[in-house]
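Researcher: I need the complex structure. Ligand is 6-O-phosphono-alpha-D-glucopyranose. Inputs:
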Amino acid sequence: MCGIVAYIGAQKAYPIILKGLKRLEYRGYDSSGIALYGEQIETYKRKGRVAELEVWDEKITETATVGIGHTRWATHGEPSDANAHPHTSNNGQLTLVHNGIIENYASLKQELVQKGYTFKSETDTEVLVNFIEEIQKNNDYSLEEAMRVALKRVVGAYVIIVMENGFPNRLIAARKGSPLVIGVGEGEHFLASDASPIIEYTKKVIYVNDYELAIISKDEIILKNLGNEPITPYIQQLDMELAQIEKGGFDHFMLKEIFDQPASLTDCLRGRLDSENQILTLAGIDQHLSIFTEAKRIVIVACGTSWHAGLVAEYMIEALCRIPVEVEYASEFRYRNPVINSGDVIIAISQSGETADTLVALERAKEQGAFIFGVVNAVGSSIARLSHAGAYTHAGPEIGVASTKAFTAQLTVLAMMAIKIGLEKKTLSVSEYKRYLAELALIPDKVKTILGTHQAIKKVAIHYAAARDFLFLGRGYNFPVALEGALKLKEISYIHAEGYPAAEMKHGPIALVDEHLPVLFIATKDAYYEKIVSNIQEIKARKGKVIAVVSADDTLIRSMADHVMEVPEVDELLAPLLSVIPTQLLSYYIGVELGLDVDKPRNLAKSVTVE
Ligand code: G6P
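Model: Output:
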């Protein structure tokens, strides 16, 4: 969370940083700020969206060619002008932006207060900038030396970028635990939390690693570790187009990303599924097949929507591969001293590849000798790099805070993994294998068919937009879809929603049912169909309002439900790929109907890089 951008070169820095911050707003959007180097460093910061910075009309915005910017998701201290970044040290020499959390900030602050330092904000960041100043002053160090010493004493996660008065042609950045990308231009350089602010200027990037320091001028990048040893920068070519991170005519990124799904799923399958010859190639699995076929247990670690994809994968892998699977919240797994045995495989699922809890959980598991397989969307991200092997989801950049196309791409990769391993283990017959491949190949078109019904789903959304609560129920493969549907609705519309396995409803949630409660059943044709029909009757008998996601040829549920949303028929193992789409659209249209900012729901951030 929090996004940072910096520029150093010959162009005007202010518009580049402002635009970059807007691209990073999905990482946090409660306050923001920019510092520019003119005659000296000047800072402008405001509570609220990045757009608040557009009114900075000082001359420096026209002249400065060096600057840093920040968009914040509050951790220490409420959103306010004072708590917004950049923060400046007491002697006014150092100005810094920070993404992450300094966990020992309270003790460092105490030390500094005793030495006479004063603070304008409640942030851990202001402590850090003053801590660097103190070390620099006391030892007569250069900024670089002072940062190295300071960062060795800092506990927590950070990316920082620092400007110093007297050094107009230099930025110094450092990273531990939070992401940082350097864009390499001609006579100019860019820094950012991800590549989206950089892509329109250059496709050459360097991903900075933990414990590295980057000293950057317009013509030079020097990378060092905290021990002052030089590191040769590894320049990579970005495989991303500007159009992928723009709205392309849609009202919101979320809607664009929902409609992207036929294409993103095709991208995900491309080069992997050869349906003509019935071959499935997943390089990350193929290179480590025996690890998977001999695995005693698979533990899936993830957060949020990615955790829901993990629940679907549990059902898929146990069914097709007969390997026991556990699905863990990364935040619990990392702290609860889990048992990890040799022969265990950890699958990490993450859209951003930067979620702090997932990252640390994996580091711990790796230390204990587990084999780590990453199912990640963001290429080159921290989780991708930490994994022993992996399969990218290739959904393209996802900007809307609520995850949509990343989820279906995760499901697709996880299904391919289960099919591949199952065949290899011979727990899946060749004929079933071929059947699944044929079904997978049809998924993008079936998603397109569902998207074609968006107007009908919009009507359902408008009908229920005033609801106070919602219940989402499903069984089997559709149970995690119920959880995901409820999460999406909460995120986007702020309507209270809960997801349950349909049979569990009798153990509590049924007490909520009355004529005001909409209950959304994910009720496509599968092994549980008759059971779910009974559950629908139980809700109707108590006057609940029933919305059902049904298979296209369904007549029975259609005759019982108040509203239905149709999806094409598909094998139950792949059903979540389709049944989730109407729930995404429903949440989106309810959010829009309520006049909410669906791309940036309150209090949320897309990439949760603090624990
Ligand atoms: C945040 C996002 C969710 C996402 C979760 C896990 O909460 O708002 O959409 O599912 O983080 O993120 P990851 O990038 O690890 O999938």
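Model: Summary of the prediction. The radius of gyration is 25 Å.
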